Amino acid sequence: MQVSVEATSGLERQMTITVPAERIDNDVAKRVQETARRVRIDGFRPGKVPVKIVQKRYGAGIRQEVLGEVVQQSFYEAAQQEKLIPAGGPNIEFKTDKAGEDFEFVATFEVYPEIALADFSEVEIEKQNATVTDADLDNMIETLRKQQAGWDVVERAAEEGDRVKIDFEGFIDGEAFEGGKGEGMDLVLGSNTMIPGFEAGLIGVSAGDEKELNVTFPEDYQAENLKGKDAVFKVKVESVSASSLPELNEEFFAKFGLEGKTEEEFKSEVRANMERELKQALKMKLKEQAFGKLVKQNSIDVPSALVDSEIDNLRKQALQQFGGGNANLDPSMLPKELFEDQAKRRVSVGLLVQEVIKANEIKVDEDRVRAQIEELAATYQEPQQVIDWYYGNNEMLNQIQSLVMEDQVVDQLLASAKVVEVEVSYEDAIKPAQPEAEAEGEEEAAAE
């Protein structure tokens, strides 16, 4: 087998492979004889079909089958010989394909980039620290009460935060417009559900009142025919209701799966959940920042095959999240451009993380894997069953091991970097982690 390699552009390689005719012809002849022993053709006893007839009837198909196997085998043999690691499958083009002649084909494919990690010691990383205070706990409990709030009709003027039941109809230049009418609609004043000025105009109304609201549709309103238009809404108020917060009692606690708990036990459980959420949020922010700095410091080419594969994953995730579980939706209908930047970043992170693991000979810490599984299991009623389930499910166990390995990579990066610890509030700490590139873009915009 003869092999020649050409670097066409970036990570792309073209490998020309020539396979001796003898290898192809021998494999074809052998396959034809095997077929003759098992094929059934009218007029011949089983196993007695002449090879010439089998060759005439099935020879072309058998040759293509053999060539397919030879291409696959010889491509990977050649890649190993040339010390190339393909990133994705090759595109194959046959150059010569005649019986009795050497078989030649060209494989075009991408390779993984060669990575020389930059020194991470000059990188500065901000490590946020936060605690759950009594005030944070009180705010959370108040939020939980508001989520379970009831509504009581009141005989007074509406205030912000009240809910009004209204009938309304909108007019532009004296003409009613499509979509501008509603009956029996519940509207919480201050929820910013309606266009600017609508809810504010209902502060002070009482049941039975009729009022005209003069408002202007925003310039960026979704309906093209309404953008920037002045409108008048005629509103009739049916009722005004005030929010009624539930008491902290057993009935309230049961709504969160905490039957039979005291108020102190409930607060203790809420605080524990907040602390778990806080720990995870701080961890994710630190990981996002460390990986973001790693990508910024090490600019690498990424194989398009890996990017395309990641785009497909992101498309599927988007459909699962927003497609309502509709299995008939085709992920490819989502524009590739929506996910390209995110996919490139994910692939870059993955390649660089693997290089950090390789350079530092990091092995997954099974004690940390166990600790992570136990932490996850602690939130269930039967923790040991959950632990046993993870260790009995290779796919789920591999996921945990991968997460732990990422944590170990972060630890390795932090050990090299300049870490600046910063105290932040609970509310700031639990805000979603922001990709490094986006954060820097906002900082530059603010500076301008």
Automatic annotation (TrEMBL):
Main localization, broad class: cytoplasm
Subcellular location: Cytoplasm
Enzyme Commission identifier(s): 5.2.1.8
Keyword Cell cycle appears in the UniProt entry: yes
Reactions catalysed: [protein]-peptidylproline (omega=180) = [protein]-peptidylproline (omega=0)
Single Gene Ontology MF annotation: peptidyl-prolyl cis-trans isomerase activity
InterPro entries: PPIase_dom_sf, PPIase_FKBP_dom, Trig_fac, Trigger_fac_C, Trigger_fac_C_sf, Trigger_fac_ribosome-bd_bac, Trigger_fac_ribosome-bd_sf, Trigger_fact/SurA_dom_sf
Keyword Heme: no
One biological process term in Gene Ontology: protein unfolding
Alphabetically ordered keywords of this record: Cell cycle, Cell division, Chaperone, Cytoplasm, Isomerase, Rotamase
Uppermost EC category: isomerase
PPIase FKBP-type domain sequence ranges: 161-243
UniProt cross-references to Pfam families, sorted A to Z: FKBP_C, Trigger_C, Trigger_N
GO cellular component terms given for this protein: cytoplasm
Record's comment describing the protein's domains: Consists of 3 domains; the N-terminus binds the ribosome, the middle domain has PPIase activity, while the C-terminus has intrinsic chaperone activity on its own.
Functional summary from the UniProt entry: Involved in protein export. Acts as a chaperone by maintaining the newly synthesized protein in an open conformation. Functions as a peptidyl-prolyl cis-trans isomerase.
Protein family per UniProt: Belongs to the FKBP-type PPIase family. Tig subfamily.
Listed name of the protein: Trigger factor
Organism this protein belongs to: Marinobacterium nitratireducens
Lineage, broadest ranks: Bacteria, Pseudomonadati, Pseudomonadota, Gammaproteobacteria, Oceanospirillales
